[in-house]
Amino acid sequence: MIVVDTNVLAYLYLPTEFSAQAEALLERDADWAAPALWRSEFRNLLAGYMRRGALSFAEACALQAEAEDLLAGNEHEVDSTDVLELVRASDCSAYDCEFAALALRLGVKLVTMDRKLLKAFPKQAVALTAG
Predict the structure, then answer these.
(1) Residue 25 neighbours by CB distance under 10 Å
(2) Which among 8, 30, 44, 102 would be 20 to 30 A from 66, CA to CA?
(3) Which of 122, 90, 89, 116 is nearest to 103 (CA)?
(4) Dihedrals phi, psi of 29, to nearest 5 degrees
């Protein structure tokens, strides 16, 4: 099991420079987890694609459903104190610290391309491109 941040999910479902790495990661370890926050962040990404005309409403809904299926059973609530402890110890947003807190709680790696997370939590966070 690994924790993935929302951008890794986006790389998997939307054409980006990191899509091939996200697909390879899924092949290596298909047991992905995320804090419940991922849904709102992913919907916000899809909203941007819809507004730019890069995705239709139906396509966005289908991608959201597919991502929800991937993470079914592996969406977690995180403890607010744990998140705020990580905020206090870093310059990462509380949103980003939710992913780090979950990885710490589960005792697994957080896969991300977020430079702040990679720098602040080098023992937990690994770059998508590292594997």
Answers:
(1) 21
(2) 102
(3) 122
(4) -150, 100
Residue at 47: amino acid letter: A
- Nearest-angstrom CA–CA distance, 125 and 88: 17
* Structure token pair of residue 20: 């091939």
Please state, in angstroms and rounded to a whole number, the distance separating the CA atoms of residues 64 and 114.
22
SS3 assignment, position 108: coil
pLDDT tens per residue, range 13-57:
999 999 999 999 999 999 999 999 999 999 999 999 999 999 999
Type of residue numbered 89 = A
> What 3-state class would DSSP assign to 110?
strand
Residues 108 and 40: their CA atoms lie apart, in Å, by 23
Q: Does 131 score more than 90 pLDDT? A: no
Distance from C-alpha of 46 to C-alpha of 55, rounded to nearest angstrom: 8
Longest Cα pair distance anywhere in the chain, in angstroms? 41
Rg of the chain over CA atoms, in angstroms?
A: 14
Contact 116, 91 (CB under 8 A): yes
